[in-house]
Amino acid sequence: MPRASELRKGHVVDINGTLYKVQQIDVRSPSSRGAQTLYKVRFNQLPQGGKREETFTGDDVVTSVVLERRQVSLLYREGNIYTFMDQENYSQFSVDKETVSEQLPFLSDGLEGINGMLVDEQLIAIEIPIMVELLVAECMPGAQAASATGRTKPAKCVNGYELQVPEYIKEGEQIKVNTETGKFVSRA
Length: 188
Description:
Blueprint: E1 12-15, E2 18-28, E3 38-46, E4 51-57, E5 63-64, E6 68-78, E7 81-86, E8 92-96, E9 114-119, E10 122-127, E11 131-139, E12 152-157, E13 162-166, E14 174-178, E15 184-187
Antiparallel strand pairs: 1-2, 1-5, 2-3, 3-4, 6-7, 6-9, 7-8, 9-10, 11-12, 11-14, 12-13, 14-15
């Protein structure tokens, strides 16, 4: 069982029988002598996706969870149910839309590098790569000299995700998008 000072982003812990994934840790060092360092931790509830914040001292013990990460791929969607397939043994895991709600804008058929997080052979969350490639389906035509300016225009990708792209991007181009910020990075 790790101490609060040993927690890192991505760790999964059990708090009162509910699973949470560490999203962010703020360390606050007190200015007075003898005071303890405080760790303010922001969690996401798994698999429902609720938020929780807790403040720990460095010596507080948290209950860690045995978590298994496997490479999975999106197999198909049926209504609000998303089915993923394990790349090694081809077993299938179905989850509801709320479980993958944060990653939905970036999920597309054939996306590689998806990690499934399993607890007791149950898929509780997925992690997608930081950079994904998306195909631009719709955008306004850019100006002729647009490559020298920093102006942007709205674009809609094949999977329905909308974002701002530079004016030189055209329909049918592959672009790289940062999944943490949701912003355009470059052409693919």
